[in-house]
From TrEMBL:
Its main location: membrane. Signal peptide: none annotated. GO terms for cellular component: membrane. It is a multi-pass membrane protein. Coiled coil: none annotated. It comes from Brassica oleracea var. oleracea. The chain crosses the membrane at residues 7-28, 48-70, 77-97, 144-166, 172-190, 244-269, 281-300, 312-331, 337-357, 378-396, 402-424. GO terms for molecular function: transmembrane transporter activity. This is Major facilitator superfamily (MFS) profile domain-containing protein. The keyword Cell membrane does not apply.
Amino acid sequence: MEERLGGLAHMLTTVFLSSFAGFLVRPVMTDVTVAAVCSGLNDSCSLAVYLTGVHQVTVGLGTMVMMPVIGNLADRYGIKALLTLPMCLSIIPPAILGYRRDTLFFYTYYVIKIIFDMVCQGTVDCLAQAYVAKNIHGTQRISMFGVLAGVRSISAVCATFAARFLPTASTFQVTALSLFVGLVYMRIFLKERLHGDDEDGYDGCGDERMLAEPILKNAPTKTHVFNNKYSSLKDMVALMKNSTLVQALVVTFFVTFSQSGMESAFLYFLKARFGFKKNDFAQLSLLVWIIGSISQLFILRILVSAIGERRVLSTGLLMDFFNAAILSVSWSPWVPYAATALVPGVMFVMPSIYGIASRQIGSAEQGKVQGCIYGVKSFAEVVAPFVYSPLTALFLSDNAPFYFPGFSLLCVALSLMIGFLVSLQIKDVPSSLMNKTISSASNEVA
């Protein structure tokens, strides 16, 4: 089993435990937030929506700066070392709500979570992507990105199923325990590198050779694209010289902008429009993640082999567009359940982007490129609440300019369409052409 997973079993276990904790609290957080900050028996209030938006903006600003830095440091000091502090800090916030969930404790949790999430949020996923890119070469890399995403989806299935039956207090206690077990497991079992420390000794050809070499013009072989003395900001500027990577980052922005908008609006929309509660959220999420895990583990690699990463990306974005558009006009509680038929497209998008981006840089610098991707994602998460939180609060209130409770979801769909149009501009670069570029650069230096 270890060999079939390319030696990634310990990293996948760490990701599972961390993701399980994150997904476990999602179905209950809307109810907990509304109960803590909204008066009376209201199913929603503007304050709850705006608190979610403030959290997204503040954390997004922090991670926008921190993710490139963390990626840079991971290349220098190792992924295992960089995982330790964020995984330690992430245990504290759910432990607070596991103790009590009244208004005072909720705001204590809220402040501490914002501070810690500026460092912790997305770190495990970012470094796990870099770990896969460093240790897996050639055509297996995109498949393993899919497996990594599939493991997260399976963790979401398990977490959502557990949240369906766990009491609210136990939900947060189990979350803290899962994070602690993940930290201990990572420190004991995770290996920094799976194939030795000398990447230049890797015996590969074709696409595998391409991944081990720099592709920037005038860059000598067996050297790094980045200067080790550069700051993370200069690393990002250096990446901008690669047009394919720029296009991938633009798509990343619109995808994350849309997903953040969906996160801000969707659950509050369902609660206000159809009276959804914890069990309803859990059932819907369970269905979504079951479909998503099957898609990422089994369907993604088949599609990538058949039509290529870029076409899979565009197909996923188009399906995501239709999903958001249908949800925006939901007229009955069964519509969100029916729309899960389009979930596979949603699940294909980010693994395809990771695969396209990782092909543009050497394996020794994957921390930097993944850090830049997550920096762009964080920037999108900063911008999104300024648009979607006011829209959601306005159109779910009695003061809406016209009756359209799902208007913010329609805006999500339009944003996804922009990402789809940009994805059509990404060109599939054959391995032979990439190797020719590398050889030319090497000859010029010689």
